[in-house]
Design a protein that fits this description.
124 residues, 2 domains, 41% strand
Length: 124
C-alpha cells in the first residue's frame, strides 16, 4: 500500500487485528485497501482493534479441509461483530454461542498464528 500506514497484524505473524478507519466518512473496514470502500477517499488510517466483540454466528468444523488441519478437528469458526464496528471471521472456542461477548487470544494453527475468540469472562 503506497503511502498508507501499514500496521503489523496476525496475517503477517504478529498477535494483533488491524482494520481501517476513514476520517472522511467514519466507515470502518476489516480488509485493508488503498481506499475507503464506502466513500472512495484514498488511504484510510490503519488502527489496531482491541480484540473484543460479540459472536454473530458460529459453525463447528467436523471435517479437515487439508491434511495439515486434520489434527485440529473439530474446530469452531465464528463471525464476530467487533467493538470497532467491523465483522470478521476467525476461530473460536467450541463452547461459543451466538450473542456471547468475546475477547481474542492468538494461537498457532498448523504453521500460522491465528486469532481465536473466547468468552470474555475467560480472557486473561
Amino acid at each position: 500500500m503506497s503511502g498508507a500506514q501499514r500496521l503489523p497484524d496476525w496475517t503477517g505473524g504478529e498477535p494483533a487485528i488491524v482494520y481501517q478507519h476513514c476520517a472522511a466518512c467514519g466507515h470502518v473496514q476489516y480488509f485493508q485497501r488503498k481506499f475507503c470502500s464506502a466513500c472512495g477517499i484514498p488511504e484510510p488510517a490503519a488502527k489496531k482493534a482491541n480484540g473484543k466483540g460479540v459472536v454473530y454466528a458460529t459453525s463447528l468444523v467436523m471435517r479437515a479441509a487439508t491434511p495439515e488441519t486434520k489434527a485440529h478437528v473439530p474446530y469452531n469458526i465464528v463471525l464476530v461483530d467487533t467493538a470497532e464496528g467491523f465483522r470478521m471471521m476467525a476461530h473460536g472456542d467450541r463452547d461459543l454461542v451466538i450473542g456471547d461477548t468475546v475477547a481474542v487470544r492468538f494461537e498457532r494453527f498448523t504453521d500460522r498464528i491465528i486469532p481465536v475468540f473466547q468468552k470474555e469472562s475467560e480472557a486473561p
